[in-house]
């Protein structure tokens, strides 16, 4: 069973077509890089596949289900996630787990395990307002995993981080995916890191899918992923 199957997925805002007839599938357990210049339709695609937005047309399944059932099977780090600064990371994750129906003790153990997984165990009790940007992104990734999703969508998880923070986040994501067997779709502009940590990519430009599949196939004879990206896309805004 494919982790994601999208058929002719389209989203229009008035006359603007943000996502234009996407047809693709993603395999279970793989890390998929969702690439494209600003405005290409990455965030809209993630919002469609996590059922935040309704498609104008087209259909999709995630983790083998469609419609309202999708929400229970996915986790998401939204494009601009906000955090309650006065809560600790542990409180925030326990609360999120409770929203998914965990008991108090379950919520505590889920939060502890995820904080360890994302490297925040030592700061679990500190207020989120004292966290660095990278720590907040780690917390957001932990939050996206709280319902043990089959498919996780991370919208620019490395945004605003320094190069070592970016690499650390992507390495952590690849490690989590392989240990948990979770499918991860992550949008990013870091092409060289994508080449290291993703099995396959989707390249969008102006709402259209320009390439999809294993990185080796997409790069083909272009030499590198960034060369392929530049050949397939127009400069963003
Ligand atoms: N709520 C909205 N209303 C109108 N246009 C939108 C809305 N959200 C996104 N768009 C447009 O859809 C296109 C794709 O945007 P988006 O999915 O955010 O791209 P990306 O995440 O790749 O930068 C852009 O042209 C953007 O301006
Ligand atoms: Mg975006």
Summary tags:
single chain, 237 residues, globular, binds adenosine-5'-diphosphate, binds magnesium ion
Task: Tell me what the structure shows.
The protein has 237 residues and is an alpha/beta fold. The protein has two domains: 4-82 and 149-232, Rossmann fold; 84-130, no CATH class. Helix content is 37%, strand content 25%. The protein is built from nine helices and nine strands. The chain has helices at residues 42-49, 70-73, 89-99, 104-117, 133-144, 163-180, 191-197, 215-219, 225-232, and strands spanning 4-13, 16-26, 31-35, 57-62, 74-77, 151-155, 183-187, 200-205, 208-214. It has a six-stranded mixed sheet with strand order 5-6-7-3-8-9, sandwiched between helices. A three-stranded antiparallel sheet has the order 2-1-4, with helices on one face. Strand 8 and strand 9 form a beta hairpin. Helix 5 packs parallel to helix 6. The longest helix is centred in the C-terminal third of the chain and has 18 residues, at 163-180. The N and C termini lie far apart (37 Å). The model has no long low-confidence stretch (mean pLDDT 94). The structure holds adenosine-5'-diphosphate and magnesium ion.
């Amino acid at each position: 069973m494919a982790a994601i199957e999208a058929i002719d997925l389209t989203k229009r805002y008035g006359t603007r077509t943000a996502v234009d007839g996407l047809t693709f599938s993603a395999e279970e357990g793989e890390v998929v890089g969702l690439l494209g210049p600003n405005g290409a339709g990455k965030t809209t695609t993630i919002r469609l596949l996590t059922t935040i937005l309704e498609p104008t047309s087209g259909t999709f399944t995630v983790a083998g289900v469609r419609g309202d059932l999708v929400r229970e099977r996915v986790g998401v780090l939204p494009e601009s996630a906000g955090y309650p600064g006065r809560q600790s990371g542990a409180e925030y994750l326990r609360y999120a787990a409770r929203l998914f129906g965990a008991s108090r003790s379950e919520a505590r153990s889920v939060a502890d395990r995820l904080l360890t997984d994302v490297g925040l165990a030592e700061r679990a009790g500190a207020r989120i307002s004292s966290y660095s940007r990278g720590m907040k992104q780690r917390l957001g990734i932990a939050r996206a995993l709280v319902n043990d999703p089959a498919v996780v969508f991370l919208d620019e998880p490395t945004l605003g981080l320094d190069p070592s923070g970016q690499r650390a986040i992507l390495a952590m994501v690849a490690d989590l995916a392989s240990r948990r067997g979770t499918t991860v779709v992550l949008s990013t502009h870091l092409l060289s890191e994508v080449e290291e940590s993703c099995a396959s990519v989707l390249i969008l430009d102006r709402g259209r899918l320009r390439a999809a599949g294993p990185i080796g196939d997409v790069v083909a004879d272009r030499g590198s992923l960034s060369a392929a990206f530049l050949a397939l896309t127009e400069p963003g805004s």
